Every structure is written in C-alpha cells, then in structure tokens.
C-alpha cells in the first residue's frame, strides 16, 4: 500500500490567509487535492494540520482513505509536519508520498503513474520531473521511515534527498503541475488562470 502525507500546517504568511482554503475548481484547494488523491491509487491520505487547523478541518472529507492529524510543532516548519504525519501512517505502507497543499494542479493520472512506478521499481526515493526540473510529490521508501523520523526539524527534506542521491530515481512526467506551486495571491491567480482540469 501507499500513503500520502498532504501537508497543510503552514502559516501561509505571504498568501495572507490559509492556502488550503483558497477557492479552486468550485471547491477549496484542500478539497480539490483530496478529490484528486481519493480517485488515485493512493491507499491512505494523512492530512497534517497546524495553523488554522480548526478552519481547515471542517473542509476535510469524511472518507475511509482520509485522516487528519495535528502537528503541535507546526511553527518548526515542513519537516516537523512531515514527521507528524509519518508517525500516523499504516505499518503496511511501502511508500510515503509527500504533497504540500500549495501544489494544487497535479493530475490524478500523474499520481497514478508515480504510484505504479514506485510499486513496480521500489526505489529509495522516486522524484517526478517535468522538463528536467524536479517537482512534487516525491515518494520515499518505507525503509527510510526511522531515519526520516530522526531528522532535525531544521533540515529540509531536500537535504535528505541529497544525502541519499544514490537511491534517487527520477521519473519524467508530462504534467507541469508537479512544479507549479504558489506562495502569493498573484502566483495563485496565475496557476488558476492556466489550469485545465
């Protein structure tokens, strides 16, 4: 089985309001991403909450695949949120997908391609690329769970990837959504205007 950690714990300082609750495709960003993941080969979706947890929680779907968790240390950054979610995944999980909430235009077909590739090849770390640019969501082999949980919260997951570069497999996909993220309202408007579902 495969798990996805959907990270939605950040402060959204530059955006000015919770990114997860921005209006997108007739729902919210977090609603849209849940629909994308529920329709995919991902077996469990652990949504990590932090800042604005109460507001965002009301937009979490009642679905057997979906489970929210709260990261009390969310002020310590993304690595702390990844670790909070990692503690909650099924022991049967073979791989852990990392998807930040600010990458809303990825397609279900792309999630499925990555899941299928990972389950067949079981690399240490699978990273999608678009036009030779690395993007989200990477998938980490479950064998790294212990090492990832020991990561200092000041160390980014990209550093962990570099430390294990010999086990990284790059996988080219035809989906610019893997490299399209947003931090500001202007960036979000640009993503929205170019998005085709």
Describe the structure using short key phrases:
30% helix; alpha/beta; 10 strands; two-stranded antiparallel sheet; 197 residues; 7 helices
Q: Overview of this structure, please?
A:
This protein has 197 residues and is an alpha/beta fold. The protein has 7 helices and 10 strands. The protein has helices spanning 29-38, 53-57, 78-86, 108-121, 145-149, 157-163, 185-194; strands at residues 2-8, 23-24, 27-28, 44-49, 66-70, 95-100, 125-130, 133-134, 139-141, 168-172. Strands 1, 4, 5, 6, 7, 8, 9 and 10 form an 8-stranded mixed sheet that branches. The chain has a two-stranded antiparallel sheet with strand order 2-3. It is globular and about 40 Å long. The mean pLDDT is 96.
- List the total number of helices: 7
Largest sheet composition: 8 strands, mixed
Instruction: State the oligomer.
Output: single chain
Helix content: 25-40%
Low-confidence stretches: none
Which structural class do the helices and strands define? Answer: alpha/beta
Radius of gyration: 15 Å
What fraction of residues sit in β-strands? 15-25%
- The averaged pLDDT comes out at 96
- What is the rounded distance between the termini? 27 Å
> What global shape is seen?
globular
Helix/strand order, N-terminal first: EEEHEHEHEHEEEHHEH
Overall strand count: 10
């Amino acid at each position: 089985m495969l798990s996805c950690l959907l990270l939605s714990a950040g402060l959204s300082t530059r955006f000015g309001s919770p990114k997860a609750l921005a209006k997108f495709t007739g729902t919210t960003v977090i609603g849209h991403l849940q629909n994308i993941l529920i329709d995919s080969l991902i077996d469990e979706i652990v949504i990590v909450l932090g800042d604005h947890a109460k507001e965002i929680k009301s937009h979490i779907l009642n679905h057997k695949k979906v489970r929210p968790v709260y990261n009390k240390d969310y002020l310590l950054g993304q690595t702390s949120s990844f670790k909070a979610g990692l503690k909650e995944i099924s022991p049967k999980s073979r791989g852990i997908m990392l998807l930040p909430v600010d990458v809303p235009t990825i397609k279900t077909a792309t999630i499925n391609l990555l899941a299928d590739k990972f389950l067949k090849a079981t690399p240490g770390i699978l990273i999608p690329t678009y036009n030779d640019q690395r993007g989200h969501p990477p998938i980490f082999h479950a064998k790294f769970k212990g090492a990832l949980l020991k990561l200092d919260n000041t160390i980014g997951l990209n550093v962990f990837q570099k430390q294990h570069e010999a086990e990284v497999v790059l996988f080219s996909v035809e989906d610019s959504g893997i490299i399209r993220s947003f931090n500001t309202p202007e960036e979000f408007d640009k993503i929205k205007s170019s998005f085709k579902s």
